[in-house]
């Protein structure tokens, strides 16, 4: 599905606007998470994201 989207220029523009600042939430990863939330009909985007802290607990 992601390959068929025509928003690459928008994503590149957003990444360029961010520059070399903090990248805690990368533009491309957040865009993909948003698309997944829509596809999987999640009410909250956070339900798809794992925090590094929760990953450390599971390890």
What features would you describe in this structure?
This protein is mainly α and 59 residues long. The protein has one domain (2-58). It is 53% helix and 0% strand. It contains 3 helices and no strands. The longest helix is centred in the middle third of the chain and has 13 residues, at 27-39. The radius of gyration is 14 Å and the shape is flat. The termini are far apart. The model has no long low-confidence stretch (mean pLDDT 77).
Number of strands: 0
Question: Structural class, from secondary structure content?
Answer: mainly alpha
Give the overall silhouette: flat
Radius of gyration: 14 Å
Helical stretch count?
3
Mean pLDDT: 77
> Helix amount, in percent?
40-55%
User: How many domains comprise the coordinates?
Assistant: 1
Poorly predicted parts: none
Note the run of SSEs as H and E. HHH
% residues in beta strands: under 5%
Largest sheet properties? none
* End-to-end distance: 31 Å
Labels describing this entry:
59 residues; mainly alpha; 3 helices; 53% helix; flat
List the helices and strands and how they pair.
Layout: H1 8-18, H2 27-39, H3 52-58
Concise account of the structure shown:
By secondary structure, the protein is mainly α. It is built from 3 helices and no strands.
């Amino acid at each position: 599905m992601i390959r068929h989207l025509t928003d690459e220029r928008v994503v590149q523009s957003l990444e360029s606007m961010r520059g070399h600042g903090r990248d805690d939430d990368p533009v491309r990863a957040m865009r993909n998470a948003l698309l997944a939330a829509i596809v999987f009909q999640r009410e909250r985007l956070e339900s798809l994201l794992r925090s590094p802290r929760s990953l450390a607990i599971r390890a």
